[in-house]
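User: Can you predict the 3D structure for this chain?
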Amino acid sequence: MRRTLLLITLAAGFGAQAQDMCGTIAERCEKHIAAQYIPDGQFYRALLQGDELAEFNLTLFGGTTYRVAACSGDSDGLLLFSVVDKDGNVLFTNKDQGNAPYWDLAVTNTIDVKMEASLDPSKAGSGCAVMLIGFKK
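Assistant: Here is the predicted structure, written as structure tokens:
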């Protein structure tokens, strides 16, 4: 009984520490959603290790400019992110932009996309990935 209670306590403590770590990263990432963008109210978070990939599905509406911000660790440029359409075509990846921590996407037609996030293997082995999305006012 004591062992079970100890394991539950340790698991809860680790979960709280991970959420705290993600919260700190989310606060830093919010700074990339500048005053001219309105956050969508969601924090897209995932704990990643090694070559794991986080996927977030969403709909981007035509006639809107979005800012996607992606953060991990203590500095910018640790998180790789891509916007992929339903057919698997990569519409944007920050790999081609020096791992930019944010990017503005002008959407002409409404489209369902998948946001993919992974850690840059040359810079981080594990960590919390946080993505934020805002739309232009």
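Confidence is low (pLDDT under 50) at residues 9-19. The beta strands are 37-39, 44-49, 54-60, 64-71, 79-85, 90-93, 102-107, 111-119, 126-136.
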